[in-house]
């Protein structure tokens, strides 16, 4: 009976020491902390950035932690930043993808080769308009509304901009 208890104790998980409120980072040597702060300073990180991080939502703080722990998924996403920017992506494009699960599935299907993207060979004309037939923008707007059409706020804004 004693032997069984001893063998059982050998395979038991060692008890974790209770960490204080600061965890193990509090034991980091001052020279390491200073060297890390110098590196962050060279990279353009400011005290304001630390303040923003401390006040950020927990999911945002978690992302920063995952980056520092070299999470392979996040690093792979960060690797595509330069290429995505070079081909014309904007941050809003990624936000839109993040909020639309169906679009994300479609992108994944293309990336994995399940779906193929083909160029449109023929594009049919939906409507032809003649430009420059009105004296000014006000006359153009008047002609559109006189014909019974509505000009949306968005279209009105576009018409109001200089070419």
Question: Can you describe this structure in just a few lines?
Answer:
The chain has helices spanning 2-11, 30-42, 47-55, 58-68, 72-79, 81-86, 91-99, 101-111, 137-146, 153-159. The protein has 163 residues and is mainly α. The N and C termini lie far apart (91 Å).
Describe this structure in words.
58% of the residues lie in helices and 0% in strands. The chain contains ten helices and no strands. The chain has helices at residues 2-11, 30-42, 47-55, 58-68, 72-79, 81-86, 91-99, 101-111, 137-146, 153-159. The protein is elongated and about 75 Å long. Mean pLDDT is 82; it is low at 1-14.
Class based on secondary structure composition and strand pairing = mainly alpha
The succession of helices and strands, N to C, reads HHHHHHHHHH
Largest sheet: none
Q: State which percent range the strand residues make up.
A: under 5%
Average of the residue pLDDT scores? 82
Q: Assembly type of the shown chains?
A: single chain
């Amino acid at each position: 009976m004693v032997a069984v208890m001893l063998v059982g104790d050998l395979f038991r998980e060692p008890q974790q020491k209770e960490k204080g409120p600061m965890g193990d980072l509090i034991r980091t040597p001052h020279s390491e902390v200073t060297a890390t702060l110098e590196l962050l300073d060279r990279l353009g990180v400011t005290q304001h950035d630390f303040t923003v991080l401390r006040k950020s939502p927990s999911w945002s703080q978690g992302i920063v932690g995952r980056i520092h722990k070299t999470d392979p998924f996040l690093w792979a996403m960060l690797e595509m930043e330069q290429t995505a920017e070079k081909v014309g992506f904007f941050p809003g494009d990624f936000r839109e993808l993040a909020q639309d699960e169906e679009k994300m599935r479609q992108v994944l299907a293309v990336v994995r080769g399940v779906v193929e993207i083909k160029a449109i060979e023929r594009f049919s004309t939906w409507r032809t308009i003649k430009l420059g037939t009105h004296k000014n923008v006000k006359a153009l707007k008047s002609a559109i509304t006189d014909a019974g059409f509505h000009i949306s706020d968005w279209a009105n804004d576009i018409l109001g901009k200089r070419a």
